[in-house]
Design a protein that fits this description.
Layout lengths: L8 E3 H6 L6 E10 L2 E11 L8 E8 L7 E13 L5 E6 L8 E2 L1 E5 L2 E3 L1 H4 L4 H4 L8 H11 L6 E2 L2 E2 L1 H10 L4 H11 L8
Antiparallel strand pairs: 1-8, 2-3, 3-4, 4-5, 5-6, 6-7, 8-9, 10-11
Helix pairs in contact: 4-5
Length: 192
């Protein structure tokens, strides 16, 4: 399964912190993998101070295994939204045809950088499931989730996380959930 952690990406927060969003800039973005350079892109960013549409122009070369290098050059629209207490928040508009979502991160998919959904990527947390353990997976997920809980009740009512934990366990206490999972597999946990 492809995850966002394994893909090359361009992050708006990095561009902002590095001073890319200050009018018109042209810089090189580069990636490393295990300490070795693994790619670079020329990014020209214009935030529209001089009457132009805000955009980022990406210019790089790519190739499919066994083929020649070919140039790729395209624009990614940028959009700014006002922040509540002043200033602006910048977004990428996904360049994939028919998408147009606002995103803070673009991921490489084939020869373009697009949003996570267009690239078909998942977060690691979405990929994690204890399904390899069969019926015990749900019990293990519930136990791992329980470790993240800080508060069980608020104003006499179960918290949202507590209700989710109860759903994961099927309304059973931990030992009862484990016995149910074992019995569904034909395993007896009672010692006679």
């Amino acid at each position: 399964m492809n995850t966002t952690e394994a893909a090359k990406r361009i992050e708006m927060t990095y561009l902002r912190k590095s001073g890319y969003l200050c009018g018109w800039t042209s810089r090189t973005l580069s990636w490393n993998w295990r300490g070795e350079p693994s790619g670079s892109i020329t990014a020209k960013i214009d935030i529209g101070l001089y009457g132009t549409e805000p955009h980022m122009e990406l210019d790089y070369r790519t190739r499919v295994e066994g083929e020649d290098w070919r140039p790729v050059k395209y624009r990614v629209r940028l959009e700014a939204t006002p922040c509540r207490f002043g200033g602006r928040r910048w977004w990428f508009i996904c360049p994939n045809l028919g998408c147009g979502r606002r995103n803070l991160v673009l991921y490489q998919h084939w020869d373009r950088f697009v949003c996570r959904k267009c690239a078909g990527l998942r977060y690691n947390s979405q990929s994690y499931r204890s399904k390899g353990f069969g019926p015990f997976g749900r019990v293990l997920d519930a136990e791992a989730f329980e470790l993240t809980m800080k508060r069980w009740y608020y104003r006499g009512k179960p918290t949202r996380k507590h209700r989710k934990l109860l759903r994961l366990r099927g309304g059973m206490d931990p030992l009862e959930a484990l016995c149910t999972a074992a019995s569904s597999m034909g395993i007896s946990l009672h010692s006679d």
